[in-house]
Amino acid sequence: MDSDNVQNAQITSVNDVTIWVQLLVEEGEIKESSYNKEWDKFDMMSEAVIVKQDGENVFQFMEYNMMVLVAHTQKTIDEIVEAYLFRELHDMAY
């Protein structure tokens, strides 16, 4: 995300991240959220990472067998979670 003010933050490119957000989504609801300045410092590794656009440098995530999804039009956490739940995010085009 581009800001540590999570309510107003928007997705940004991997190279411009200010803060990483990790969400636990169960039964269509956000159950837990964690924030960290580095993606690999969370207590548990994520199953997926969502990036802003195709062509982002995602090899470090792939090394951890994380699914890489792209939010082409979604910008905020709420928009991204909704798109994730409705399977509207896309696999990355390499």
For this entry, give a set of tags.
single chain, 94 residues, alpha+beta, three-stranded mixed beta sheet, two-stranded antiparallel ribbon, 2 helices
Largest sheet: 3 strands, mixed
The rounded Rg comes to: 12 Å
- The structural class is alpha+beta
Beta content comes to: 25-35%
What is the first-to-last residue Cα distance? 22 Å
Molecular structure report:
- This protein is of the alpha+beta class and 94 residues long.
- Helices cover 14% and strands 27% of the residues.
- The protein has one domain (14-38, 45-91).
- The chain has a three-stranded mixed β-sheet with strand order 3-4-5, with no helix packed on it. The chain has a two-stranded antiparallel ribbon with strand order 1-2.
- The protein starts with 19 loop residues before the first strand and ends with a strand.
- 11% of the residues are buried.
Question: Briefly, what is this?
Answer:
By secondary structure, the chain is of the alpha+beta class.
Spell out the blueprint of helices and strands.
Blueprint (H helix, E strand, L loop, with lengths): L19 E7 L2 E8 L11 E4 L7 H4 L4 E4 L6 H9 L4 E2 L3
Parallel strand pairs: 3-4
Antiparallel strand pairs: 1-2, 4-5
